[in-house]
């Protein structure tokens, strides 16, 4: 056994001004509701929700840890006031939403595709489809990234495409000239395509599932409903991003021969491909066979492990922290609903003279702005519940959730942005200029055409 003195000791760093500010905001979010709100139920629920939002937005603790604190604080503080509504069993059930099964199935599918090299094969195929054109390569890279982001996390999709392209653009290379501008455009294209690709499917982004879970009692949104609306939106935003990057970075002319070897797919890769296609078909035909998409996702995960396409050790590689973050977002929404806070806030907003169309625009812009600087899960969970009190329709929740994917202007806005920036050669303003344009275009599109498009897709 190693001597205790040989073990690494934890390192303590001096708190930064930002952390002191976050701690002050945390204390204020807890103390002020308890001092200023007379109703003890509302006061305690507001303190819990405020503390969770501060923790999520400041990230002074791991994001998933906030979920654990939420699940502990709710029965502790609200349970004595209403044991039936806020018992530990009830509160734990908030996060055990069927959409969590869908997200888990998506994670196992992503893990299997990565393990057998299927994602690398897709990335290399898209690169080979560029036909020697800079614009063609940019388009192929963005399409490939968006396709992968539809079925796996945007982090994995962006990172995999950048790894595939690294032989073409070595880290820190091309600091000036035409190749530097093209490299910037490709890195930004990967980031934006990964962000917008997640809108296309329910499992592509956490806010998507939060919206589906929030409106289960109003309207059951299945895969076919979501894709019918969100896939064209994704295609449009990726296309606008491509045009914008071509214009801003002067992308044109031929590209030197691109040789990126795709790994052999093998029998395991082909088996994963068959399961992927079968699962997608089952999700899209849910209205015909009436098997819930969550059940299909669990069956997929069980099959992947049963036939040894995934091993027990692979369970450690599943993004459990992300699953817990989504569970926290769902639980926060339930807290705002069950405590009556969402209804109270919605009533005050509904009583204003602002037309419903402007309120919808305000919620969309607010969700995009908050998501640009903080957790999109926290932003969507809070705003969806408040918004449903004003407009109890599935379309309102879906539009607010999709707005979370529009918050892309900063390096810190999304993990794909940070991954692209960390490759070198990008400045923060390289993200900000196209990012703000895309955010404005996306929010305007959702507000002006979203409800009509959703009704056309069968979502009220």
Name its key features.
transmembrane helix, Cit_transptr-like_dom, 22 helices, 460 residues, disordered N terminus, single chain, mainly alpha
Protein architecture, described:
The chain contains 22 helices and no strands. It is mainly α and about 450 residues long. The chain has a domain at about 100-215 and about 220-325. The protein is globular, with a radius of gyration of 23 Å. The termini are far apart. The model is unreliable at about 1-10 (pLDDT under 50). This is DASS family sodium-coupled anion symporter.
Could you give a short description of this structure?
This protein has 22 helices and no strands. With 460 residues, the protein is mostly helical.
> Given the structure, what is the number of helices?
22
**Unreliable residue stretches:** 1-12
Secondary-structure element order, as H and E? HHHHHHHHHHHHHHHHHHHHHH
Overall spatial form? globular
Question: Which class do the helix and strand fractions yield?
Answer: mainly alpha
Tell me the number of strands: 0
Helical percentage: over 70%
| % residues in beta strands | under 5%
Largest sheet: none
Distance between the termini: 64 Å
Name the average pLDDT: 86
Main location: membrane
InterPro entries: Cit_transptr-like_dom (IPR004680), SLC13A/DASS (IPR001898)
Organism: Humisphaera borealis
Subcellular location: Membrane
């Amino acid at each position: 056994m190693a001597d205790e003195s040989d073990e690494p000791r934890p390192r303590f760093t001096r708190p930064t001004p930002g952390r002191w500010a976050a701690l002050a905001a945390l204390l204020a979010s807890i103390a002020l509701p308890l001092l200023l709100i007379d109703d003890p139920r509302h006061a305690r629920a507001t303190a819990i929700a405020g503390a969770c939002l501060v923790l999520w937005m400041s990230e002074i603790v791991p994001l998933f840890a906030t979920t654990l604190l939420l699940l502990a604080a709710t029965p502790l503080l609200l349970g004595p006031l209403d044991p039936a509504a806020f018992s530990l069993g009830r509160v734990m059930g908030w996060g055990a939403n069927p959409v969590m099964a869908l997200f888990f199935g998506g994670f196992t599918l992503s893990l299997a595709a990565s393990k057998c090299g299927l994602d690398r094969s897709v990335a290399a195929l898209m690169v080979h489809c560029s036909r020697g054109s800079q614009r063609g390569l940019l388009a192929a890279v963005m399409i490939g990234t968006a396709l992968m982001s539809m079925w796996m996390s945007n982090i994995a999709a962006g990172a995999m495409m950048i790894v595939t392209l690294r032989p073409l653009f070595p880290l820190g290379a091309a600091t000036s000239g035409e190749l530097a501008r093209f490299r910037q455009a490709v890195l930004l294209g990967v980031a934006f395509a990964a962000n917008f690709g997640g809108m296309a499917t329910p499992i592509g982004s956490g806010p998507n599932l939060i919206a589906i879970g929030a409106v289960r009692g109003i309207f059951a949104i299945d895969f076919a409903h979501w894709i019918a609306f969100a896939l064209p939106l994704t295609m449009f935003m990726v296309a606008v991003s491509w045009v914008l990057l071509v214009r801003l970075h002067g992308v044109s002319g031929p590209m030197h021969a691109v040789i990126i070897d795709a790994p052999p797919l093998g029998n395991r890769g082909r088996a994963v491909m068959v399961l992927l296609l079968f699962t997608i078909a089952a999700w899209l035909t849910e209205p015909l066979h009436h098997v819930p998409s969550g059940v299909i996702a669990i069956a997929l995960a069980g099959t992947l492990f049963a036939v040894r396409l995934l091993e027990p050790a692979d369970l450690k590689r599943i993004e459990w922290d992300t699953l817990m973050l989504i569970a926290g977002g769902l639980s926060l929404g339930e807290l705002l609903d069950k405590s009556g806070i969402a209804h109270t806030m919605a009533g005050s907003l509904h009583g204003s003279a602002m037309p419903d169309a402007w309120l919808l625009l305000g919620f969309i812009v607010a969700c995009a702005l908050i998501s640009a600087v903080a957790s999109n899960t926290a932003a969507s969970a809070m705003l969806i519940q408040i918004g449903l009190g004003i407009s109890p329709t599935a379309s309102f929740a879906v539009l607010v959730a999709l707005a979370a994917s529009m918050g892309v202007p900063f390096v810190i806005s999304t993990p794909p942005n940070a991954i692209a920036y960390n490759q070198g050669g990008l400045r923060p303003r390289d993200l900000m200029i196209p990012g703000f344009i895309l955010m404005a275009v996306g929010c305007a599109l959702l507000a002006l055409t979203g409800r009509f498009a959703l009704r056309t897709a069968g979502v009220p």
